[in-house]
Hints:
Elements: H1 3-17, H2 24-27, H3 32-47, H4 51-59, H5 65-77, H6 79-94, H7 99-156, H8 165-170, H9 173-186, H10 197-206, H11 213-218
Amino acid sequence: MRGDDTVDGAVKVLSRSLPAIADAGLRARMDADRVRVYELVRGQLVACGGLGAFESFARRPDDDSAVRALLRQAVVRDRAFAEALADAVAKAGSARPHATYSSAHASGKRATAVGRDQYNQRHMRINTGGLVLLAALGIAALVLVFVVLPRLTGAATRLTGDTTCAEFLQADPAEQQRAIVRIAQERGVGGSGSPLARPAVSYSCSSRPKAKLGEVIADFRGQF
Length: 224
């Protein structure tokens, strides 16, 4: 049997036997010659680093291009393997399908269906987990909007015109700037958005810790 014929025959035998023959329990009840072809091909591909290609072929027997290419190289490179594979293919091709193989093949289909159902269940669990995560993120967003932000807003607006300079100086720069702009607008003081406004008010407050913030800002009317 020529090398190409051997490869074609091996692929044909395996295509008819997969995916059931890949299961050790089902393989034990199959025709010995078919199993021999499977073991020879798998063993050779594992030895030459082609396990990934073989496993892909086992999952999708209709996509055999990678396995064919590796087997062609193997039968050329390894004469003993080529002869053993040709012999196994010839015997597997001439043997009548055994009843146990038919049963195993049917079982293989059931196993495939079970595997598909398990995949669907896992996929459903993943989708459910995604929904739970989205719900958690939604709750976190609501907490941020209705709890955290109001508190931050309240902290940012606690400085008023009646706040003392000492309290003003204890606030962070961003809070100070917001308070200056707000209070200046309330008291008709223009230019509060100037980069010089906060340093000027802070400097003035540093020497008047008990003064009211509104009064200090009003003193800068027309100066910003």
